[in-house]
Amino acid sequence: MTGSQARRVKLLDWLYDYPGDVAGIVDFLGQEPDELTENLWRGTLRALDKDGLIRLAETMGFAGTSAFITDGGRAEVEARRARRENPALRRAAAANGLLRWLYEQDPYGESWSQIDQIESTDYAVFEGGQLPAQLFRRVADHLHGEGLLVAGSYVAEFDGPLTAQLTRRGQECVEIGADVAEYLNRTKEQPTNVTHFHGPVSGSNVSWASAHVTQTATTTGIASDELGVLLRAIAEALPVLGLSNEQAAAVQRNAEIIEGELQQSDPDKHVVKTMLMRTADTIVGAGNSALGLVLTGYAKELMKKAGISIE
Questions:
Q1: What per-residue confidence (pLDDT) applies to 308?
Q2: How many Å from the N-terminal Cα to the C-terminal Cα in the chain?
């Protein structure tokens, strides 16, 4: 929101709630402005009057300048306040704002940013109201699941991560100027019921007690492709890996992030390594199943094949 837009919003909000009819502008400002501020406000007031949102009465001295809000102005305030309190619009604004703010901090996604710091920027302002840090943390958790950012440290008492950094998908979303929801709708893959293994897993195809899954094993020699389909196979195997609902959801989110990264022409190996090691640790540490050991062992072999160090 620009300075001019902010002045319009604040003044209209104040006039809407003003108990009388005609209000002195100095009463709104709290004191007589200096020459520069006076010129800025005269421009804002005249624009609002021209737009039919207020009726302005100007005097030679700014102290006598007054205005009252019109029906059109009241309608604008009411519509903006409705948008300001709309949960879906607030969430969308937070998602778009967070990605663009992270891009400003580090467009290459090489360093972590403290999410709470966005509160002091214009990206935290929506329709003239302040969006809370808690909302940005919740949105960050969602964007992490969609592969647009990597979530950093979590603390039990907070909803969502405290730090984040962009992935290549997040960078692309910002650079093409897309709305987050639009970008996700454009790039989201349709689910499939066919899972292919490229390369051997344990000498034969593996059945995971799913009557609607077809699995085949072939060799392509492309490690990143093999890694991608292995991740989808892990997702199909979640019901029999012995994970809690929370752990299964975390594995699913991590797999989606890695798949999104592998779709890029030049995948970010740091993101792939971090997310895959988290996935492997969760499966082996919590699931305690032979299948989990096979899947994670094969995943590590594919990481080596793709030139991603696991040390």
A1: 63
A2: 46
